[in-house]
Amino acid sequence: MENLEKLLKEFNEVSDYRITTVTQESYELFFVHEKLETVRRTETMDKNVTIYVDHKKYRGDSTFVITKSDNEASLREKIKSSIEKALLINNKKYKLPSNEVNTYSLESNFGDYSMKELGTNIYNILVECTSNKKATLNASEIFLYKTVKHIVNNCGLDKTQTKYKAMIETIPTFDTKKDSVEIYTQLNFSNYDKKWIKNQINEALKDVTKRSRAKKPNGELKCNVLLRSSEIAQLVGAYVNNLNYQAVYNKSNSISLGSNIQENSQGDKLDVILHGQLKNSAYSEAFDADGISLKKKKVIKDGIVINYFGANRFAQYLHKKPTGSLNLIEVKKGTHSLKEFMKEPYLECASFSGLQVDIDNDYIGGEVRLAYYNDLNKIYPITGISISAKLSDVLKTIEFSNKVVTNSYYKVPQYALLKNVKIF
């Protein structure tokens, strides 16, 4: 590192630089049904250098990767090439984060286990979930990671982060005499919790079993619609994307400070907080790619936009304080129990081909691959339908459950009830 930094300082054209090093240990298991086919261990190190070149009133940047085969001569050539590329970029000038040194260990209990022990425990949960069910897991892969990220720049910033995460990819499958139905499932988490993993897998097995029996309804359904947590996060995320400093600077945002996205609301008001870290999230970070420390920021209160957020460069352009790239969403819980939602007929959307949220065109909708229709007498699994509504109408009357779930990149109510939705 010292030799690399010394080499960078030899080039007068280099105004600033940032060096990012990521070392990663992984333990990977691959299964066909319940049979373990392959176990793989890897250790990798990736290092990249971003150089910044000030020219006239502009600042350009360029990034190159360092490989094991690099020597002083090859590094010089990479630096020269990056300088040439940076000179072609005409961004407004901005400063790098400076004078901060810290070391972080993100919350996780993975360190209490060896990777082999943790992988075996997760595998045993998958076997347990399928032992008494007709549905199976056709193929499963378990990935465990320990990652150390180090960022240093020439302005006195030096930060290191250690984090653990896991990913399960599996294909719940239900075979009938005529067909085989599958639902791809991916779980990402940073805390080993047997009950949580088991609940997620059992829910996926239940959905694939029901999907094998699902039929297209006869005629149009008229009832309330229930969205699950992942779709709630997508809905709110569409608004959050508009509040990023970059979107604001580029004037590509559809909403701005003071915007009321729930005018004349008759339901639950939206409160949205963005985080760098959430418990059990595989996407938690202590700092972003620039090295900016991530702290929570409330961006929507009672349905009204109260703050923007974003990374270092565009924060400076807007004369705002950088919050860093906050990627995790929290939505305040609602006031309703699931029993209250079930007092009227409803359609619970379990699986979308892709929920579409279009703020500019005031639209929300999508194709539903699996849903459960409850007419208050019986619950029917349904497929082959779509939903459609005016986004503004939905937000006026939206109601949230009083139970919150955390998963991957969000902490949101378990369900949202939507009214005035067309089902066809």
Written account of the structure:
The mean pLDDT is 96. It is globular, with a radius of gyration of 25 Å. The chain is built from nine helices and 24 strands. The protein folds into three domains: 2-211, PmbA/TldD superfamily (PmbA/TldD fold); 224-233 and 334-423, no CATH class; 234-331, no CATH class. The longest helix has 18 residues, at 194-211. With 424 residues, the protein is α+β, with helices and mostly antiparallel strands. Helix 3 (115-130) runs parallel beside helix 4.
Labels describing this entry:
424 residues, PmbA/TldD fold, 3 domains, 9-stranded mixed β-sheet, 24 strands
Number of helices: 9
Name of the CATH first level of the largest domain = Alpha Beta
Total number of distinct structural domains: 3
CATH superfamily caption of the largest domain: PmbA/TldD superfamily
Name the structural class. Answer: alpha+beta
Looking at the overall shape, the CATH architecture of the largest domain is 2-Layer Sandwich
In whole angstroms, the N-to-C terminal distance is 61 Å
Rg, rounded, reads 25 Å
Indicate the CATH topology of the largest domain. Answer: PmbA/TldD fold
In total, the number of strands is: 24
* Overall body shape: globular
Percent helix, as a range, is 10-25%
- The overall pLDDT, averaged over residues, is 96
Strand content: 35-45%
Unreliable stretches covering 5 or more consecutive residues: none
How many strands, what sense, and barrel or not for the largest sheet?
9 strands, mixed
